[in-house]
Write a structure and sequence with these properties.
heterodimer; A: about 300 residues; alpha/beta; 4-stranded antiparallel β-sheet; 9 helices; about 30% strand; elongated; B: about 425 residues; mainly alpha; 4-stranded mixed β-sheet; 18 helices
């Protein structure tokens, strides 16, 4: 039982619309899994099905070894996409209350809540009403209430939305620390940089269907590499260079041209560079760029959209 | 069950810590005291109207009016203060009206001070008397009846005297009246006393109190669910506990708040009655405790509260804002207000067929049954109405649990189609 979550052929339909369509993937224990996709891809619906909040139309889910998520609720921590807490409660009381619902004894929950708040720099605010806290602080309190009971599986739905860059980095550190103690973290996002920095595995969803499942590295490889060429030459000079397509150009000062082109995966970069030298082009810069997750995301979701509309 | 108590405890403490809770405790006794004291304050702060009588009939009617005003005095406070008509004598009614108008408009005060409020001009018409009442305030009819009755009585006496009836006999006849005593087989000693009427009065009062508290409690619950839904707390709760646990916990928590408010109101009422009306207090305690009205009231309070609370919680789960809930509840409030129109009837005719029939309509049951308590409704009626309420609540819960789950996760306006689709799925 090495998987914290296993999903097979999961489908959820609302009328004739399939919000999630034949989705299968597994999240190994102790890993950070990014659940990626554009808005409306079906991420929240999937996470709600995993939590047992809504029933799938068909398919099968196993969470922490159980088919019924209700049986393992106390071992799961959840942060919903749209966040809020009891505005008139203090952080300590709110975390203690929600920990109590996860089965923690009140005294223990209270002690742990104070520890967590202090470790996250919220010690001074722990007895202040939540309505008086900043948005970032309140979101942090809510995240702490999702992990206070040290769950084996932490599900975070768009945890970075609404946070400033400093708080985003602090949240990334917190997610890493959760995984470091052996918990599995699944978080949904449409901001690829977070996934790129944090995830061991990414599952990419578009229009309800899975379009990728694997490591960040493997996802990047889906997108082609690109080359950047700069020099005082015309576009004509590049026409017979091998392996370049999708050219975009930009005119720089002094008659210099910058060209960014997709590199055909079958053509090594050295071949292009060799061809440039062979033609004697006055080149100032040649750069080989590895694709990032964002580019892979755009490519994968676009191909799915085309397939969907075809 | 632990989760239910935790949710209930949070709900309870969240309300008890608010200013609104303490205000609601104080509001009813303060309102009740104001209602009791206000007429007294009004009477004391408003001087008796100044009345001038212009008698143009030569029948000597003014002394009878003065006598009547003295007779109608409550304590030291007469219903009117007789003043001399300034500028008398007058040629005729129109002369009096014309010359006294300046005093009635308030432009000129009376010679003895103050303003003239009412002028009664008594003028001969054929063999009888006509009374013209001129008032400073258009709507002031406070002394018109008094003057008219005094004039009628004097005219009757004078007619009888002219017919040769001895004035002493007329005066004696004026004082003749039958002694009426109320009896009822339901009265403890046959003769109806305040103690026998108390259950009906208490029942009616409790009916209104029940209506107010049940709907207030259910309204609080509605607000709480909407707040939790809009702030997405419900989604967090749903990931930790089941829908029935959330619903029952919230219903119990707010029910506890409502019961606390009611209990505190009752304690305040008991203290006030014990101090102000000790003899009534003993009878009241006997009715509430020995005759079991308190238990009767508690049972219908619980039944009514559960029925309405379940309904309101479900509606709350489908609403995004209090305004949306208000729009939805508006028509429902008209229906729920029906018992208020009939409960007053229960005081005099608690066994009227219409009241019995209304008591069997579940949304009206708790209020109508409590208001009808004076009839000692047969046990089968109590049992049947309680069973109907329980069945209604069970049906509501059956519909409400999946509806609550679906409503709690939906963002946007309440849609009847969504609600009915959920219900159809449940039935399917």
């Amino acid at each position: 039982m090495s998987e914290a979550l296993a999903i097979d052929a999961l489908t959820k339909c609302y009328g004739d619309v399939a919000a999630v369509d034949d989705l299968s993937f597994a999240a190994p224990r102790g890993r950070i899994l990014g659940f990626l996709g554009p808005n409306g891809a079906g991420k929240t619906t999937t996470l709600r099905m995993v939590l047992g909040l809504i029933k799938p139309t068909s398919g099968w889910i196993r969470v922490l070894g159980e088919e019924d998520a209700a049986k393992v609720r106390s071992r799961i921590g959840f942060l919903p996409e749209e966040r809020g807490l009891y505005r008139r409660m203090t952080p300590v009381n709110a975390i203690t209350f929600l920990a109590g619902l996860k089965g923690m004894k009140a005294e223990h929950a209270r002690r742990r809540a104070i520890e967590l708040l202090e470790s996250q720099g919220l010690g001074e605010a722990k007895h202040r009403q939540i309505r008086l806290l900043s948005k970032g602080m309140a979101q942090k309190v809510q995240l702490l209430s999702a992990i206070v009971h040290e769950p084996e599986l932490v599900i975070l739905d768009e945890p970075f939305s609404g946070l400033d860059p400093v708080n985003q980095l602090s949240l990334e550190a917190l997610i890493r620390s959760i995984a470091a103690r052996g918990a599995t973290v699944i978080f949904s996002t449409h901001v690829m940089q977070h996934a790129e920095r944090l995830c061991d595995q990414v599952v990419l969803l578009a229009a309800g269907r899975k379009v990728f499942d694997g490591t960040v590295e493997a996802a990047r490889k889906v997108a082609p590499r690109s080359v950047v060429l700069e020099g005082a030459f015309g576009m004509d000079a590049l026409s017979d260079l091998p392996g370049l397509n999708g050219l975009t150009l930009e005119r720089l000062d002094g008659g210099v041209l910058r060209i960014v082109a997709m590199l055909d995966p079958s053509v090594p970069a050295q071949v292009v560079l060799g061809a440039v030298f062979a033609k004697g082009l006055p080149m100032d810069r040649f750069e080989l760029r590895e694709p990032n997750l964002h580019e892979a995301f755009i490519l994968l979701t676009a191909s799915r959209s085309e397939a969907g509309s075809a | 069950m632990t989760h239910v108590w935790k949710i209930a405890a949070r709900e309870y403490s969240a309300y008890v810590q608010t200013v609104g809770f303490w205000l609601s405790i104080l509001l009813l006794p303060v309102g009740f005291a104001t209602l009791t004291i206000a007429p007294m304050i009004m009477q004391r702060s408003t001087p008796a109207p100044a009345l001038a009588v212009v008698d143009l009939t030569s029948r000597n009617l003014a002394p009878e009016i003065a006598h009547m005003i003295r007779a109608e005095a409550i304590g030291a406070e007469p219903p009117a203060r007789l003043v001399a008509a300034p500028g008398a004598p007058f040629a005729d009614a129109s002369d009096a009206a014309r010359r006294l108008k300046i005093f009635l408009t308030g432009s000129r005060p009376l010679p003895e001070g103050g303003l003239l409020d009412v002028v009664a001009i008594l003028r001969p018409v054929g063999g009888s008397v006509a009374v013209d009442i001129w008032s400073r305030q258009v709507a002031d009819r406070s002394v018109a009846g008094l003057v008219s009755e005094a004039v009628d009585r004097t005219l009757r006496r004078q007619a009888l005297a002219r017919a040769g009836v001895n004035p002493a006999v007329v005066a004696a006849i004026d004082h003749v009246s039958a002694s009426v005593t109320d009896f009822s087989p339901k009265a403890a000693r046959g003769k109806v006393a305040l103690r026998d009427r108390l259950p009906g009065m208490v029942g009616l009062g409790m009916g209104f109190l029940l209506w107010m508290s049940v709907l207030t409690g259910a309204g609080m619950l509605l607000g709480s669910v909407i707040e939790e839904k809009t702030s997405r707390i419900l989604e967090i709760l749903l990931s930790s506990v089941s829908v029935p646990e959330i619903m029952v916990g919230k219903i119990l928590g707010v029910g506890g708040v409502t019961a606390t408010v009611l209990a505190l109101w009752m304690i305040i009422a008991v203290v006030v009655v014990a101090i102000r009306f000790p003899s009534v207090g003993v009878d009241l305690a006997d009715i509430l405790l020995a005759r079991g009205l308190l238990v009767y009231f508690a049972v219908y309070f619980i039944g009514g509260y559960l029925m309405f609370a379940t309904l309101y919680v479900t509606i709350g789960a489908f609403c995004e804002s209090p305004r949306e809930a208000q729009a939805l509840l508006g028509p429902m409030m008209i229906l729920i207000s029906v018992p208020l129109m009939f409960m007053g009837e229960a005081l005099t005719r608690p066994d009227a067929p219409i009241l019995t029939a209304l008591a069997f309509i579940p949304p009206f049951t708790p209020f109508m049954m409590v208001a009808r308590v004076a009839t000692d409704p047969p046990l089968w009626q109590v049992g049947a109405t309680l069973a109907l309420m329980a069945a209604t609540t069970a049906l509501e819960l059956w519909v409400a649990i999946p509806a609550f789950r679906s409503g709690a996760l939906i963002s946007g306006r309440f849609e009847l189609r969504t609600f009915i689709a959920g219900l159809t799925r449940r039935l399917g």
